[in-house]
Structure formats: structure tokens, C-alpha cells
Amino acid sequence: MKHQQAGFTLIELVVVIVILAALAAIALPRYINLGSEARIASVNAVAGGLRAAVAVVQARYVVNGNNAATSVTMLDSTVVTVNAITGIPIGTAAGIGSALQAGNSAAPVDGYTTSYAVPAAVIFRITPPNTANCQATYNGTTGAVTTNVTVC
Q: Does the pLDDT of residue 14 top 90, yes or no?
């Protein structure tokens, strides 16, 4: 009785390797840009965190019932607010910085450089690249949050 061996020929194996190489060459460039997309997602997440912090501080301000107050207490942090009915955190470390920390002694946002140079435009830049093209900006006057993620 003769047994016939079954298997792949060398040509079939080479064809499969060539097809896999072609697929890898097409798919690889799509995954190279994931670092940039991750930084963009991170900046957008920080912007969402800023908006949430403003909303929570405003809610606490309203619950306190004193529209002349200049601060609210969040956990064990005092957040300085704009002296107006809105209760938005001011654009300083004692304002939006405290609202983001809420009892945490660490930096407001890990992996970011925070610039409180102009209270009307507090800048949160991801490091790296630490450029103006990859940042979230908080307006301490209006409570608005904007992002710039043109090149991350």
C-alpha cells in the first residue's frame, strides 16, 4: 500500500509569504500615526476634564446659595471663583488648578505643562511635544475651553 503525503509545495508557501508581506506593507503605515492620534485624544480628554471641573464648581457654587462668594470648597480644596453669579473658577492655580486637583497634591494634569501666565488663557500642553499645536486652553473669564490639535 502506497501512502501519498499531503502538504504544501514550495511555490504555495512562497505565494502565501508574498501575500502576507504585501498586506503588512499596506497595513503598517496606518499604525505608524497612532502616537499622534493618542496625543489628540489625550488633549480632548483634558478639555473634557476642564469642562467637567467647571460644571462641578458651578454646581457647588449654586448649591451654596451665596452668589457674592468668591470661592467654593471641593473636597478639601478651596476653588477661587469669578466674583459673579456664574461661579466659574478663575484662571489661576487657586482656581481651575484647584478644581482639577480636588484634594490631590500632584500637578493638575499629569504629563502636561500648565501655564497660568494669563488668567484669561490658561494653557495645558501635552509634553512632548509641548507646542501650541497640541494643547487645551481654559478661559478664566468665561469658563470656555478650546483645543488646538492641528499637529500633535
A: yes
